[in-house]
Amino acid sequence: MKILVCLKQVPHKDARLEIGSDGTWIKEDGIKFEINDYDNYALEEALRLKDAGEAEVVVATIGPDRVTQSLRTALGMGADRAIHVWDDSLANADSLGIAKVLAAVAKEENFDVVFCGLMSDDSNYAMVGPMLAQLLDIPHVTAVVKTDFENGAVKVEKELEGGTLEVSQVPLPCLLAVQTGINEVRYASLKGIMQAKKKPLDKKALSDIGLDGAAVAPKLSIEKIYTPPKGEGANLLSGSADEIATQMVGKIKELGLL
Amino acid sequence: MRFAFTEDQQLLQQTVHEFLQAECTAERVRGFWATETGRSPELWSQLAEMGVTGLLVPEEFGGLGMNDIDMVLLMEEVGRAGLAEPLISTAAIAAPLIRDLDNAELSRAWLPRIAAGEAIIAVAHTCNAFVSDAHIADLILVRHPQGDEIHGLVRDQCALTAEPANDPARRIFSMDWTPKPLTRIAESGRARRLWADVLSRGALATAAQQLGVTAKLIDLAVAYATERKQFGSPIGSFQAVKHHLANVRVQLEYAQPLVYRAAHSVATRAPARATDVSMAKSAASEAAAAAAKVSLQVHGAIGYTWEQDVHVWMRRAWSLGLAWGSAAWHRERIANAVLDQNAPAESFGYGASIA
After folding, report:
1. CA-to-CA distance for B217 and A28, rounded, in angstroms?
2. Is the ipTM of this complex over 0.90?
3. What is the pLDDT of residues A138-148, one digit of tens each?
4. What are phi and psi of A146, to 5 degrees?
5. What 8-state DSSP symbol labels residue B89?
6. Are strands B172-177 and B131-132 parallel, antiparallel or unpaired?
7. Could B15 and A76 be called an inter-chain contact, meaning their C-beta atoms sit closer than 8 Å?
8. How far is CA A108 from the centre of its chain?
9. What pTM was estimated for this model as a whole?
10. A190: nearest CB among B15, B18, B46
11. Domains of chain B (ranges plus CATH)?
C-alpha cells in the first residue's frame, strides 16, 4: 500500500503571535513552527498501517525552507520519504491553490490512500482535503475518528454533531481527513531523526509538477486579521438566585429579546 | 568556524523538549515524589525508547554514538522539565566511562542495557556527600579512596543508608563498601584519568540541567508577574520587579556559552576541559540560585505554598547547586589552576611555548 500524508507547518502552539504590519497575517519572524496537530494524527494513522504490514508512507508539504524541519520530524517518526514543494508564488496561496499543488504531487504516483488533517491550526478552513479529493477524483471522508482497512476498502467512522458517529465503507483509493484524538501520536526518536538524514527528501518547484504561478493564483485574499475588541458595559447581577433571575428576565425584556 | 549548534542538534533538543513538555508535567513530577523509589520506570523506558539513555553509547552497542555536545542540549531540557531521573549518572557519565574503558566484556554487559533503558547506574564521587539513586542502581561506580582504582559494585556488594534530602525528587544514600579484586574495573593512571572525566561529565551535565532550571524559574516568575496585578497594573511592569528578572536573565545568558564551551572541551578532550567545566558549573550554579531566589520573591507569599509549582524547580536549583561541586568548590578549582606555579597556562589550554 502506498500512502501520501499531507502535512502543514503552522506556528507553534506556544508561540507569542503578533499581527504583521500589513494586517493580513501574523509576524512569522522569530517564532517557532511545528507540524499542524491534526496532521500529526493523520501521519500516525499512516504509520500504524505501515507498522501493520507492507506500506510506504510519503509525506508532502508546501512552504519555505523552514518546513524541512517538520519533514525531518515526520521522517524521524517513521515516514519513508518526503516531498517539499515551494515557489514564491505560493506565499499567498489559498486552499484551492494548495490543493492543486498536492493533487499534482499525488498524480505523479499512484497512492492508495491520502491522509490529511481535518483542518489546520492556523487558518481553520478545513477545505484542502475535500478539494484535493475532488481534484484527484477520489472519494473522501472528513472528521475521521476510526479506520479499518480490509480487502481494498476502508471502513471509516466519521464524527458528527453531539457525539454521533457515521459509519461508511469507502473503496480505495480515497482521501481521509483525520480528526484529532483518533490515535495516540508517537514521538520521533532521536535515532529516527538521525536516520532521517539518509531518507529521500525531494525538493520540487512548481514547474517540476507541471504547474506555474498562474495556476495557483489565489481566488481568495485576506483583507485583515485582528483581535476582536473587548466588550464593554457588562452588568454584574447580584442578589439571591430569585432576585438575579428576576433581574435577568427584566433585562431580556428590556432588550426586546423576548 | 561555526560557533552554533547544528540543525540536527536543535531538532533533537526540540524533540526531547516536546516529549518532556507532554510527558513530564509538574503534576507528574510531584507524583514521582510520592512513590517508593521516587522514580518512574515508565518514563525511563520512554526516554530509552527515544534514545536519550543511549545517546553516548556507541552504535555497535545499540546507542546513537553521539557526543557530549549533543548531550548538553538534552540535559538542558531535562532541567527545564524538573526531571530527576538518573540520566546524569547513567547516560552522561557511566555510558562514556564504560565505553572508554576499552573492556569488551564490560561493554557487552552494560552498554546495550544502558541504551535499552534496562540498567541504571549510580556514581559515588567524593565531591558529592552522598550517592544519588543508589537504591535503584544495577551498578554503582566508585573510586577506591586509598588507591587509583575504579570499582563497579552491584547492590549486594555495598551497604546503603538512606539520607534526608530537602528536594523530594532526590534519593540520596551513604554507602559502605570494601574493595575487592573482583569489583575492580580500572586501576593506576588509567583509572585516574577516567575518574577525572567522571567529574567533568558530572559537573557538565549538572550545569546543563541548571540552565534549564534557571530558564524555567524565570518563565514561572514572568508568567506570574504578567498575570498578578497591583495598583491596577501587572507587577511585572514595575522596575523593582522586572529589573530583578532581567538580572537573572543576564546571568543565564552569561552561563549558557560557558556550559556550551565546556561541552565542546569535554567532547574534544581539550586540555583546558577541567577549568572550562568549573567555569560552566560555577556560573550555572549561581544563575540557578539567583533564579530560585528571585522567582520566589516575585511570587510573594503565594510562592511559599505547596500548590505553586515554583518550589519544584527551586529545590532542583538547590540540590543541583550542591551536586558535582558547588560554585565555591569550582571557583577554588579555577583559582588553583590560575595560581598553579608549575603549569598555569596548560590549565587553560595553552601550551608552554605560548605561555
Report:
1. 27
2. no
3. 999 999 999 99
4. -160, 140
5. I
6. antiparallel
7. yes
8. 22
9. 0.86
10. B15
11. 7-189 (1.10.540.10), 196-348 (1.20.140.10)
